[in-house]
Amino acid sequence: MSAGLKLKQVKKAYGSVQVLHGIDLDIKSGEFVVFVGPSGCGKSTLLRLIAGLEDITEGTLEIGDTVVNTLPPSKRGIAMVFQSYALYPHMTVYENMAFGLKLAKAAPGEQDRRVREAAEMLQITPYLDRLPKQLSGGQRQRVAIGRAIVRDPKVFLFDEPLSNLDAALRVATRLEIAKLHERMSDTTMIYVTHDQVEAMTLADRIVVLNYGVVEQVGTPMELYHRPDNLFVARFIGSPAMNIVSATITGTGAPATVQPETGSPVTINAEVAASYLDAKATFGVRPEDLTPTDGPGLFTGTVSIVEKLGEVTLVYLDTGLAEPITVKIDGDVEIAKGETLTVTAPTERLHLFDENGVAFPRVSLSRAAE
Amino acid sequence: MLWRYTKTAAFYLLVAVIVLVSVFPFYYAILTSFKSGTALFEINYLPHHFSLDNYVSVLTTGVFVRNLGNSILVATSVVVLALFLAVTAAFALARVSFRGRGLLLMTILAVSMFPQIAVLAGLFELVRGFGLFNTPFALIFSYTIFTLPFTVWVLTTFMRDLPMEIEEAAIVDGASPWVIITKVFMPLMWPALVTTGLLAFIAAWNEFLFALTFTSSNETRTVPVAIALLSGASQYEIPWGRIMAASVIVTVPLVGLVLIFQRKIVQGLTAGGVKG
Ligand SMILES: Nc1ncnc2c1ncn2[C@@H]1O[C@H](COP(=O)(O)OP(=O)(O)OP(=O)(O)O)[C@@H](O)[C@H]1O
Ligand SMILES: [Mg+2]
């Protein structure tokens, strides 16, 4: 049992408030897809549309080649794990997990087998007779996942399942979910989070949402290395990418831009001739910048030093509007007030036009031709 | 120091006064019910006489047992009917959004403010029209009408506070609204159901005006009316002993119910609420 999903121009409005503006999405069977985006961008809404907990205002949703727009949640072959666990407080763990099967009138032997199998998988067998209130947060979340597994869904939906757990437990449960995906390899999983690490580590593909619009869909590495636009560039990666305004002074591939201060910068992007003298922005990730003795990309005074142990974050005052963030090795000694020059490989620079759309990238070898 | 003792003493004095005022009438009724003959008119505050004559006479002469049965039937039916209607209505009012929901809730609250006497005539016409006059159904019907606004209001408030995600989890599990109400919400609403049910029962059990108006024969009366209409050997004799015995008999079930369910209510309230 497995199924992909197809969303075609899916829109959602609450009254006159348009929350989702035409989402097109193709999710392959067995894929692990993560929805990320800032708070209020519509991640939960999109997930609830897929679950059938909200009606789709416009557009179609297919699960495994069937249009399911009007199908009730229980008929869609989905299971959902909620942020607050949403266990039935008056039922034991066993009853919680068996409830759906009981309503579906599965044979008692079959119910028992499936509940015990899921409990075994999640190591909650010792707690089967307990009530939810007698469990810790992590155990409750596992029960909630168990309740979903028991339904043997084609599509597994998670809405920020880890956000109520403390940091250590979050990591442990994240690994648990990754293992679960491996074991249930033909079950499609859709996962909502605003935690980047969860998104990067769990996802086969990430969908970045912003104000009800899909900004980019891609593998974690695609999003990290080749963001389609400024929003994705800034949203993925921590600390956020440094963004610098500049003017395009050389078109073609590679292109040249002139920042407000400092020397011209060459970027591996293909820029049409019409963009000459146009405003643009380029970005570079803090971890791609390295200190150098020779001429570099930015030179400035160290204004803040944040030592995180393995790495140190350095904020450089370069005369630009925003300080430049540099992530360097934790062993390097550096003090406030020092002057520092940093540089980055040309292929690690990202160039965006005035509207924040990335220019096409060219590979190094082609740029050299 | 002294001030603290004074405060404590004053507090317990107040408690004692309250207990005395609320318990004494019932205590005196019990005392009186065990007296017979002229002892009835002696005033004493400790048990002196003990005779079950009044109880035997109340239970064997006339149709008091029948009246008791009527009261139990009416009050129980009212509780069952009102809770069933109120739970389903509360689900709609708390969880289904529809146009005019707020207005409807306010109307329900407003209806519960009508005094009984104001609707007595109209209700009488209705009862006659439906052919319910002088049957227990007349009372069940009118009590349910009067109990529902309060019951609906309380249950709606309670149901609105139940977490939305639990309901959604049940929907994903394939539960119909009826299953959600009975299998998921009702167990969580146990304290509210007991409280409102108990209040509805007590109200129906004690009601006098409708019971007097909508029944006309001895066999269909409920106990409050029956007690009021108990008569002595002659027109000039008020049978205090039997009245007190009857009062004690009808009060005991109420006290019992409250004691049984009070523990449940406290249990429900202290179980840690409803936390996913
Ligand atoms: N029932 C509703 N009526 C009106 N507007 C709503 C309703 N539910 C959600 N919205 C709006 O839809 C938008 C998207 O909400 P949604 O819950 O999907 O955000 P989200 O991306 O999940 O955010 P978060 O990360 O905070 O959970 C929000 O702006 C919210 O105000
Ligand atoms: Mg959300």
UniProtKB/TrEMBL annotation, chain A:
Q: Which family does it belong to?
A: Belongs to the ABC transporter superfamily.
- The yes or no answer to whether the keyword Transport is present is yes
Indicate how the chain sits in the lipid bilayer. Peripheral membrane protein
Major site of localization recorded for this protein: membrane
ABC transporter domain mapped to chain residues? 5-236
Give any Gene Ontology cellular component. ATP-binding cassette (ABC) transporter complex, substrate-binding subunit-containing
InterPro entries in alphabetical order: AAA+_ATPase (IPR003593), ABC_transporter-like_ATP-bd (IPR003439), ABC_transporter-like_CS (IPR017871), ABC_transpr_MalK-like (IPR015855), ABC_transpr_MalK/UgpC-like (IPR047641), Mo/tungstate-bd_C_term_dom (IPR008995), NA-bd_OB-fold (IPR012340), P-loop_NTPase (IPR027417)
Keyword Nucleotide-binding (UniProt): yes
Q: Which UniProt keywords apply?
A: ATP-binding, Nucleotide-binding, Transport
Regions crossing the membrane? none
Q: Name one GO molecular function term.
A: ATP binding
Query: Which protein are we looking at?
Result: ABC transporter ATP-binding protein
Output the superkingdom of the source species: Bacteria
**Where found in the cell?**
Cell inner membrane
TrEMBL record, chain B:
> Which GO CC annotations does the UniProt entry carry?
plasma membrane
For biological process, the GO terms are:
transmembrane transport
Q: Is the keyword Cell inner membrane assigned to this protein?
A: no
| Location relative to the cell | Cell membrane
Bilayer topology: Multi-pass membrane protein
Q: Report keywords, A-Z.
A: Cell membrane, Membrane, Transmembrane, Transmembrane helix, Transport
Which CDD domains does this entry report, sorted A to Z? TM_PBP2
User: Can you tell me where the transmembrane regions are?
Assistant: 9-30, 72-94, 103-124, 136-155, 184-205, 240-261
Pfam families hit by this protein? BPD_transp_1
Residues in ABC transmembrane type-1 domain copies: 68-261
Q: What family does the database annotate?
A: Belongs to the binding-protein-dependent transport system permease family.
Please state what the protein is called. Sugar ABC transporter permease
